[in-house]
Amino acid sequence: MEPPSSSRLWASLWTFIKFLPYFCGLFILGLIKGILLCPWACLIMAIGISALILGLWPMHLIWTYYCIIRTRMVGPVVKLLLLVAATVILILWLIVGIPGSVLAGLLYGFLAPIMATFDAVGEGKENTFVHCFVDGTWSTITGSCTVVRDLKDMLFHSYFSIMDDLRLQTPCGKPYEIRLLDIPGALLSAACGLILDVIMFTLIAIYKCPVMLFKGWKRLIQDLIGREGPFLETACVPFAGLAILLWPFAVLGAVLASILSSIPLGLFGAVVAYQESSVVMGLSYAVSSVSIFDEYTNDVLDMAPGSCFPRLKYRKQKNEDSSHGGQLSKPGSFDKENQEGKKPLNRVTSFKNSMDEFNPFKMLDHLFAECKRQGEVLVNEGVITMKDIQETKSGKVGSGVLNVGLPAYVILNALLRSAKSNSNGLILSDGTEITSDNRPKSTLFDWFFDPLMIIKEQIKAENFTEEEEECLKMRVLMVGEPSNLKVTLPHVPSLNERKKAEIDAFARRLQGITKSISRYPTSKRRFDVLVKSLLSELERTMGGSAPANGSQALRLRGGIARMLSQKSVGKTANIMDEDPEAQVARKALTP
């Protein structure tokens, strides 16, 4: 980094000094609001979360035992271990959950008003003086209620969805069972690995914490003088200055995190010993994990590569490069040799914009906005009926057209759009393209994005016709077994058995992805809003007569499916004369 000129240095310091009173005033105002609202937010969250934990705990206990006993995925020994582990987890949940609700309420009620006060003076805000006092007051109270509601959805909706999968899922082969003879060696490896890793990780973290402290201070001060990095935005200068003062606490937290990470890494030696059926391999992993941690910290702190600790082979497979001696390749941000000849990265133009450009929450907002838009179209076409809405409102987990089929239908349209455009990523309805370069950097998002890219390439390779795409869309939308969907699915004579099996496989995979999305707490709340919107649209479209006539709704859907099937063979000219159900559909769709 080039040293800044003296005029730029004094200008930056003068801007920082001028902003200090402004920052102090906002901080004091947010502090006052936090002190006033903290008890109320804490009261709402403590009472609501504690009531949910205590009220649902007996049901969670009974249903967890029942699902573990009834599952066919594992054998008797694994079931016994799962029952013991579930008992420990449920007891810890009861002990930790209630005090944790009080602590979470205190933190949220105190910090939310402070953050809202500073956010009120952000870019694009109007009437900032009023927003400084108003923002973070009522929103903190409603936010506390939203947290309780999301937790309720997780403990009720998501929990039963996951447990039903465990209970009803059938294994592809034999049920998974534990080899009892390998258990003693695995326990020995876990004990030795835990002792070794805790001691060595602690010593390495303490040895390198001064390096992290002074290198961090140096980088933050350089950014402060040069107005780069977190000091780029004027509004972020006080927070970044606070980061300089609190950097020792960040270093202390990193040391504690390193010590805590040694526990699962040390216990993982039991997994290695069990998988390889060798105590020696488990102990070798315990020794090698110290070397891995040492190399990783060297890379993070930009120290000399490599490690002075031995790196032993802990896997029997010969193709595992990371399981034996050798240096870890340094990440691109620290590998200077690999950076030569490459185009330097541009500085971020805005710290706020870089954070808000693409994130999983915005992608979730877009998904539900598309579900609402395309759902209203399907309601007007008679494809989504009152029965589907009532099933979703009744709380049928993972079996509704709205909470599983409709999101899968939206995602399928995006995949088809991307495949036809030969896109390397995913093209949204507004023309935005999400690729591996600009996608949200989140592990949770990767779990969904990578499988979708594989499905997109497979759809492109299949080269479906227009009629086959319509059949695939209906199969994705109508949740259920293929044998139960003959009435609703369009009949396409060109489909052979192989194509039908491929369409069913694509539909099941997309529905499985959206079923996982529906388990997240915020998703259930958004689905409730979507159901209300589609219900009002259905009542407006049908004039309130559809709920009283469920058979007409089924006939309407069957008529539309038959219209699609007859369109595929060029028979739309005489639908009205040959199919009375199609006549009902056409009359309902005709404005």
From TrEMBL:
Disordered: annotated segments: 317-347, 572-591
Keyword annotations: Membrane, Transmembrane, Transmembrane helix
Biased composition (Basic and acidic residues): 333-343
Transmembrane segments: 12-32, 44-68, 80-111, 186-209, 230-249
Matching InterPro entries: At3g27390-like
Name of the protein in its database record: Steroid nuclear receptor ligand-binding
Classification lineage: Eukaryota, Viridiplantae, Streptophyta, Embryophyta, Tracheophyta
